[in-house]
Write a structure and sequence with these properties.
Oligomer: heterodimer
Strand content of chain A: under 5%
Distance between the termini of chain B: 38 Å
Largest sheet of chain A: none
Radius of gyration of chain B: 27 Å
Number of strands of chain B: 8
CATH architecture of the largest domain in chain B: 2-Layer Sandwich
Number of domains of chain B: 2
Distance between the termini of chain A: 14 Å
Helix content of chain B: 25-40%
CATH class of the largest domain in chain B: Alpha Beta
Shape of chain B: elongated
Structural class of chain A: mainly alpha
Shape of chain A: globular
Number of helices of chain A: 10
Largest sheet of chain B: 2 strands, antiparallel
Number of domains of chain A: 1
Number of strands of chain A: 0
Strand order of the largest sheet of chain B: 1-4
Largest interface: A-B, 37 and 32 residues
Chain lengths: 213, 290
Amino acid sequence: MGEIGNILLIIVSVVFVNNFVLAKFLGLCPFVGVTQKTESALGMGMAVTFVMAMTGAVTWLVYNYILLPGSSNIIGMIFPSIRESGLVGVLKTASYILVIATLVQIVELALRKLSPALYESLGIYLPLITTNCAVLGVALLNTTDSPERLSFLHATVQGFGAGLGFMVAMLLMSGIRERLALANVPTCLQGLPIAFICTGLMALAFFGFSGMI
Amino acid sequence: MSIIIGTFITMGVLGIAFGLGLAIVSDRFAVKIDPRVEKIIEVLPGANCGACGLAGCSDFAKAVAEGRAPVSGCTVGQEDVARLIANIMGVVAEAKEKSVAVVMCRAKNVVDKFAYEGVSDCRAAALLHGGPKGCEYGCIGLGTCVEACMFEAMRMGSDGVPEIIEERCTACGKCAAVCPKALISILPISKKVHVRCKSLDKGAVAKKKCGNPCIACKLCEKECPYDAIHVQNFLAVIDYDKCTSCGKCVLVCPTKIIENYEGKRVVVVSASPFKKVKQEDVILSVSKES
């Protein structure tokens, strides 16, 4: 299979088979919080997609040139002992959080200047992407070495695909919840409980994709 | 030991690098904000109802600061807010009269055409043969307007037609916008005489459908000294530019469908809750905390 085939495989895998929300249950907070309306779900999905793709790219660089042991380690040039042990165990999560927070801030600043309308409509949810565990999940899963070490392109594509998967899940959920608003839901299940039941049913449906790849 | 020092140096360098990057980006994408916008947002009610014709309170504040909207544009805040905004902008607010919503139907003994068992929403019911009510011009009575009111200024009356609690009404027009029969009008509070029927049926037909119709007898038209009320399409219509609310037409109306609100305005029941907390707001605030 050629390079394009590989990239398509990664995207299909991460959007449907290993959907971050519905298969790994990451990022449930914005998934439940911002799916009241389709427009806000779409805006949030796009912002998260951008942040995830950028995170995939930048954390790959951090992982390969700062954290991993070996000759490519920049820190190892100053401290030879780090060249052997690396900083993976110590700094992985902390440095990734730093990357994500910076990227979200940049997105926020850029959006405020370039598209004030979108900035207004996303409101509080834009800085909240920082605390979205799905983004950290993308970074961490991108930089595990099993089953194989990803290339820079594949890591970026996987981040982008994870964002797409997140957006798909958000749009499906917002469609369901707009219908639920009109449905006759028992009082004890109104609001969040019925949303979680729907999430579970959607996850079951997405389970049908497993084994496809 | 070198691991610890290396860790500190790595995080320090990464932090400085990202910090510098952020500084450059924030300088490149700096946005100048008019300080008056923030001040105006503070004094606005924050209902985000859109009655000013703009997308929410912050948009209105921006429009005022740029001179695109009048300082008295907020119908919810009315005179008090207009005065505060005028102070911020350094201009004098022009006086604006309070308006209220009026329900133009007083359905009485209207028989249902069929039993409606769909979604409990007037808009949905109206799609099915114009709603279950025998009079296709009248109130369906499922209370969509009451749901739409953000200020709890409406309630369903005992006769199945919504009532306006006028002390709370801010004339935002949400109820008028959702009514599928367009029965709700936003009118100045000084206009006290209203024809509370929208039926375009001929007198005899209307009389069969409802106990309170306009039968287009033209007695009001003949009685009016100001030429302000006319029967058009079998319905008496008041020209509010000419009407002085003298109440003469009210006295001659045989079906008593022309109503004088003088002294009949619905009084406030309890202290006005400013904002009705909606379920989705609660969910949003929960998700912000988590």
